[in-house]
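During the second year of the project, the team shifted from modelling isolated chains to modelling whole assemblies. The rationale, set out in the original proposal, was that interfaces cannot be judged from single-chain predictions alone. As a representative example for this report, we include one of the complexes processed in the last quarter. Its constituent sequences, exactly as entered into the pipeline, are reproduced here:
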Amino acid sequence: MSWEEILIKLFNVELTHYIVLSAVLFCIGIVGLIVCRNVIRVLMSIEILLSAVNINFVAFANYTDLGDLKGQVFAIFIMAVAAAEAAIGLAILLALYRNKPSVDTEEFKELRG
Amino acid sequence: MEMQDIIYSFFFYAIAFVLIIAALGVVFMPRIVYSAVSMVVAFLCVAGIFVLLNADFVAVSQVIIYGVGITIVMIFAIMLTATREDKKLWLAFKFRSLVAIGSAGLLFLLILAAVTKGFTMLSSEAGLFAVQKPSQEVIQRLAAEGTTSAIGKALLTNYVLPFEILSLLLLAAIIGAIVIAGKGKDKLINPTTAGEKPD
Amino acid sequence: MEQFLEFFVENAGAIAALPLWAFLIIVFGQNLGVYDNKKITAWITCTSTFIGLIWSVCILFWTFGAEEPFSKNITWLSAGNIELSAGWLIDNLAAMMLLVVTGVSLLIQVYSHGYMEKDDGYHRFFSYLNLFNFSMLGLVLSSNLFQIYIFWELVGVSSYLLIGFWFRRPSAAHAATKAFIINRIGDFGLLVGIIAFLFFSINWWAASGNIYLGFTSLQPAAEYVLTAAGPVVYCLIALAIFCGPIAKSAQFPLHTWLPDAMEGPTPISALIHAATMVAAGVFLIARAYPIFEASPCVMTTIAWIGAITAFITATIAITQYDLKKTLAYSTCSQLGYMVMAMGAGAYAAGLFHLMTHAFFKAMLFLCSGAVIHGLNDQQDMRYMGGLRKHMPVVAYTYLIGCFAISGILLSGFWSKEEIFAGLYGNNMTLLTIGLIVAFITSFYMFRSYFLAFENEYRGHAHPHDAPKVMTIPLILLAIPSVFIGFLLSGKFHLPSFDKYILSGHEASAHAGHHESLMLPVVSLLIALAGLLTAAYLYHDRFKALRESVKITADNIIKTAKPFYSLTTNLWYIDKLYYCFIDNIFLPVCEFAANFDKFVIDGIVNFIGVKTRFEGWFLRQFQTGQLQTYLAILFSGLVGLTLIFVALNLFM
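Output from the structure prediction step:
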């Protein structure tokens, strides 16, 4: 396969491009989830993860199921769940903060028992 | 390749580029407020991607829910916790970070390999996910009505049960958030630390 | 009448069970604080033994009219083709032993009440005494070799407990341990012998239908084993069984525990280490006689071991100054006589001597106990003397004992004479040794008598006479010591002990009687010579004569210096043992201990350390931080994905 063909394929945006894009977002979200020390940033990383999933759903809906749009329905569902999750996340964050005035994840070691 | 496709590709790459940069910004920006701004940008870019994928209703929802609602929640969180020393709380330079970055990179490569087999399957004919060309009729219907009515019908016909459960979930989340965040319930939430600090 | 006596025989186990009950009553009564009266303990003990004595007498009368030995057994355990029984066997031998054990026990228990009155461990002492009585009577009643082994061990334990009765004294504790360990050596041999015997004869027992290892059918079994195992192996088996009597009856290589066992209270020395338990070895030889009899080499070994023991311990007894040690070595020596007689085939003579010896030796020990008691725990004969004036009853009974053991007309004379008669026909060398030992016996016994009871008092404590509760048993024991030998000698139309014991033992009744007057006269003269030598060397009446002739005890010691040091050092047997223990046994033990410590423990410790390391390793993941868990979770997920993708891509 020549370079030209690869370039043409790269510029002919298809389903795979979206999948790769969502994979990139997912990986960034995971890294953020684990690496960040700020609890709020961890919450944001979760939103990034959900967005990556949403992109995947909508992309599949567009390329394989344009008649029924099941993927888009699911994306709506996920958004609603994400909103709920954000609200609960905020509540938990506040409760934690009241017990221990910090948002540093390194300080929360209660699971150790 | 037609002009239309070239413009489409151009838009895709532009939005994807900004999206990835913004997502990286969420994680790696030194200050939490920058992260929040970067997150807003990322959400708007995701909405742009949805537009490119013929999902106008989802895109609008994305802007409303993520771009506004969740962002406000995050900003509330930032303000309520009022971190003075947020520069210190940037990244955790620990072994787990290395593991996470390594694993994430590996996962990305794996997905890439699985999806494209090294870019040999980027063409639609031999792709893993063979693309079905939608019929002309469907395209015309979507062009005339948009996706909103289709999604609305789906939500109230096929997916009415999950939809109702979702409303219950949201109700539970609201009540739960109030209960958890409400004052004077600390002992219920975290008995171990509550025991340490008997104030 | 016949049925009346049969009742006692059929329930003979009660004789052994009564002391067990007494033991339990005393132990629980004391430890639960039910009563605290010493008289109750004494009454319980003495009553149970007295009932046993009456019972034994009834059994004895039954045996006069009985044709066959009575045996009653229950199956105790059966495993595979082995079926072991427990029960009792009443024959003439058992009846005789029962009478001796219960009779001597009763008198000694009465005596102990006086002797131990002031001791703190009074109740403990009597509970041990009952435990011993139970074990000893069980041993006598045992119907098979395996059961006898169990009671054999039990008497060993009670002996251990009683030797170490004053366990706060280090010497007593050591003596108890020594006795126990040396007995273990013999018991081990006995157990090996029994098991080997059973191994070779197991088919015979299964086919014959007799109870396994039962004494009544031991003779055909022994013949079967002899043909099955061959003479050499059979000889080894019989010698292994003989190891038990060697240790228990304090025979030559393992006799060293008995003198040390005198650390126990004196009634114990009298009961266990003179009259009954040490005689258990002789009793076992008598019980297992068919086994030994089948192999001439074993019989010769037994006879020679008995002779060596008799001689060595008699020579040691000459130089002892401790009253109880003298008696202890004399016990060894007399036991050597019995074993020698057994080995030489004079079966009945050995048992006769056992019985007479039980009475007069118990009496002698009780006398020594009375002396020690009266002198406030003074045991050294150099600090005694002239005690005849202070405690006449003790002195005269002791004198009777001396006459009896030396074989001057009293009971010892008749039994020894029978032993000599048995040896006369078989082995002249052994007879010579026996006569020499008879001289030495007479000498050291009268030496101890003259040192302790004649001459002037050399001690410092004020001697006081023994109480009645102690002297009455002495007098009661003196009666059989004087008469029993004569009454049962079988001469002058009196009842014969030999005929009684040998009835039902036709095969072993080959101890031909030597009916000449020469042997008794010679032995009597020899014993009198011993008496006169002792009197000459130790009685003050001959002081002038001694000094004029210049032959005194000190001079003899000087001239026979090597022999003297040999006997005072107990023939270096103890030293040899300690040398062996220090130079061979302990290094081996140390090596084994170190092997255990470093290799075995090392393996175990390594396993522990490995587990701890693994725990530490796993604990590193248990940080309590959610993000660490997430990292682990995520990397695991990626790993799984990697596997699946690899499988899909490359296969």
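Residues 507-512 of chain C have pLDDT under 50 and may be disordered. Chain C touches chain A at residues 622-627, 629-631, 634 (CB under 8 Å).
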